[in-house]
Amino acid sequence: MPRLLALFLIAISLHARADVAALQASLRAERPQAETAVAALQQLDAALLRPDSLYPALGQLPLAELQALYRHRGQCRAPWPALPADLQRFERALCGGETLPPEWFAAHPVHPLGGSYAWHYLQRHPDSAPALQPYLHVRERPAAFAGIGGLGDDSLAALLSGERWLLDGGALWWRDGASWRRYGAGQWRPLAESAGLALSPLVDGDACPQPLGRICARPLPPSPWWWRALAGLSLSALAGALAYGWLQRRRLERERRFVLQMLTHELRTPIAGLGNVVEDFRAGFDQLPAGAQQGFGRLADGVLKLRQLADASRHYLAADGRLEVPQPMPLSEWLDSVAERHGATYCLDQDRNLKLPAYWLGLCLDNLLRNARQHGRPPVRIQAGWEKGRLRLTVSDGGALPRYRLSLLRRELGASAGMGLGLAIVRRVMNRLGGRLTLEGPPTTFTLELPCDDIAD
């Protein structure tokens, strides 16, 4: 039976690959609605392609400085707020009508208030539009690059992560060598049917015979009788070999995963609505009372975290088992954001630019810091270092535990103690990331070890 099942799966995969190759040949022969060179996109600063570049950079400047910057822009009078030198020069240029050369915008892509520096400059100097087009965010010039700026956030993020196939708004995007091509639904659907394929967005957790990035290519029912006979025989043998108990466990697992996926999917709509509300308040920020401005900052930060949580949960529930695509960032910048949330300090041997799964690694470190403050004793310390391709993060406190073995500690504490549940989450996430959680003491020291690449290497 295993040999028969293997032959069946091989036959399906060969059939799907042949169909995809036929679809690619048909698309290559078809004239697309629009086309843009990949090299043109690669010449842009990566920040001018990311969707989050259009939101205020709360992680770059404190909320109070952003508020002062927003208020001063409408007044343009002394005293000037304390701002970084480049940002202050730009704001003085706006207020004084100073002309900035295009080279300045090449070195400064994204403004802390959201959007490109070039876009903010063009609000006062519209005559500079021809020279500053290369320095605008793709969303700020939706007609450029075959309309890539009109892609949704998920599709634009997938394009940045290297996907070659996208379905967005009924249009099919395909990267063919050195160019991105866009085909309307009236073009690609007949070509896909001729190749024996049905294309649809890839649903998290769904079994897909031939995934094409964020698209699932399913073969249409084949016509040869031998193919149907082979499929029927193989499926019958497989169904007969599976035990009833295994089927029950699988069904329960699928139901739980479906509920989680449904909740994650349904959360995206109210999160998007909250994002629109935040934008409405931001437009009238200077009319808000001082207390409401502080509340607006907390609201904007909360909506951003909800958006990150929904996106990270989508990766966690994906069929391929990946949590998220690691993003390059300075280790010190990431540690600053974690330490600020907990009012903690850290010691870093040497700063490096690493590819980090920032959200899930931050979740693990948050749990350890929260446990140290609630169940340990001060001082709470964070030590970070990177050596030979592995990142090592330690959280220590002055308390004592009844056991210094993770397996025994989790059983003794249990989920009701809070700490036990937090450690279970950390251990499972680290396993999914390819790392590990260890415990030593006294003093109580939890260590996260994770393989990650140094960009400089």
Describe this structure in words.
22% of the residues are buried. The chain contains 16 helices and 14 strands. The chain is α+β, with helices and mostly antiparallel strands and 457 residues long. A hairpin with a 2-residue loop joins strand 6 and strand 7. The chain folds into four domains: 2-43 and 144-241, no CATH class; 50-136, no CATH class; 245-316; 327-451, Histidine kinase-like ATPase, C-terminal domain (Heat Shock Protein 90, 2-Layer Sandwich). It has helices at 2-29, 38-42, 63-75, 85-96, 102-107, 117-122, 129-132, 153-160, 185-194, 225-241, 244-283, 290-316, 331-342, 358-375, 406-413, 419-433; strands at 34-37, 165-168, 171-176, 179-183, 197-201, 211-212, 215-219, 327-330, 346-348, 353-356, 381-387, 390-396, 436-440, 445-451. The model is unreliable at 1-18 (pLDDT under 50). The strands form four sheets. It has a five-stranded mixed sheet. It has a four-stranded antiparallel sheet with strand order 1-4-3-2. Residues 262-454 form the Histidine kinase domain. It catalyses: ATP + protein L-histidine = ADP + protein N-phospho-L-histidine. Pfam families: DUF3404, HATPase_c. Residues 1-18 form the signal peptide. Its EC number is 2.7.13.3.
